[in-house]
Design brief:
Number of helices: 10
Strand content: 5-15%
Shape: globular
Number of domains: 2
Structural class: alpha/beta
Largest sheet: 3 strands, parallel
CATH topology of the largest domain: Arginase, Chain A
Distance between the termini: 19 Å
CATH superfamily of the largest domain: Histone deacetylase domain
Radius of gyration: 22 Å
CATH architecture of the largest domain: 3-Layer(aba) Sandwich
């Protein structure tokens, strides 16, 4: 989360009492000086009837000037207990605890975790989960998790859901922990207690809608965190950047007509041939009603893209 983005979520940044992003005095001074410089140049060039000068502005200069500015702390939240969520009938399933385990290992190898402020973990309460899910949705998860045998869990998941969903006895607890991590980290960034942060959690979340368990996902951590910021923290504008191979269709649906959240998704699409095979994943699905213009899809229709292609997307969209 940077200012507020997402995660595997969030607000545009810590904001002051007027709802505007908090900017350090030094950055504000840099911007003010640049504006004054441009005004003086325009005034000088137009004096005596001369044609106005063509001003060239470097959009990256502020970033370069800010590189030495002291920033706030970076937060991190994780718990090895979330590794307990696993497929009990298919240990080779692609959505494996090894994904989170390897992420933690690499962060430790690079010494990144020691440079961050670690937030404590907790379990999200029903009231938080219900910000973006129905009671029936939670009841369905609880029912499957409580089944006494692995075979019963497998039968229920494969018969009533699909082969991309699995649960064991730890799954709901892990999902609650992952959601709480997103909520607490987003809140800390919004309040200005942290500059940015990262939540390393599982199971993932952006395919879980209000009434549907889908695509490895049980609860939608980012959607819940965003709803929390809007309803409990006083946020008025949030941006979610969903950078994943799959389109986060559930997060999009949750805010499709809501102008308080700008949802941006960069995902593999292949003209609908790639999962989740949805028309709504295409570029011309831009929101509806008062939310029109607040949904931005960047569907990737070719394979083999390089870093430069993604950098182009990030700089031009």
């Amino acid at each position: 989360m940077e200012g507020k983005r997402g995660s595997p979520g969030g607000a545009r940044g810590a904001r002051g009492s007027a709802g505007k992003p908090r900017i350090s005095p030094r950055i504000a001074a840099m911007k003010a000086a640049k504006r004054e410089e441009m005004k003086r140049a325009a005034s000088t060039s137009s004096a005596g009837g001369a044609s106005p000068a063509v001003l060239v502005s470097d959009p990256f200069q502020i970033a370069r000037d800010a590189k030495d500015v002291l920033r706030g702390e970076t937060g991190v939240v994780y718990d090895e207990e979330m590794l307990k969520h696993a497929n009990p009938w298919d240990p080779d399933h692609i959505e494996s605890p090894r994904r989170l385990e390897r992420s933690l290992e690499r962060c430790r190898e690079l010494g990144l975790l020691d440079r961050c402020r670690r937030l404590p973990t907790r379990l999200a309460q029903d009231a938080e989960l219900l910000l973006a899910h129905s009671r029936a949705h939670l009841d369905a998860i609880q029912e499957i998790v409580a089944l006494p045998t692995t075979q019963e869990k497998k039968d229920r998941c494969l018969r009533r859901l699909d082969d991309s969903v699995f649960m064991n006895e730890h799954s709901l607890r892990c999902a609650r922990m992952g959601t709480a991590a997103a909520v607490d980290l987003a809140s800390a960034v919004y309040r200005g207690e942290l500059q940015n942060g990262m939540a390393l959690v599982r199971p993932p979340g952006h395919h879980a809608s209000r009434d549907e368990i889908l695509g490895f996902c049980l609860t939608n951590h980012v959607a819940i965190a965003a709803r929390h910021l809007l309803s409990k923290e006083g946020a008025s504008r949030i941006m979610v950047v969903d950078f994943d191979v799959h389109h986060g269709q559930a997060t999009q649906r949750e805010f499709y007509d809501d102008p308080s959240l700008l949802y941006v998704s960069i995902h593999r699409h292949e003209h609908g041939r790639y999962w989740p095979h949805l028309r709504e994943s295409d570029y011309d699905c831009v929101g509806s009603g008062s939310g029109a213009g607040f949904n931005v899809n960047v569907p990737i229709n070719e394979t083999g893209l390089q870093n430069s292609d993604y950098l182009s997307i990030f700089h031009q969209v």
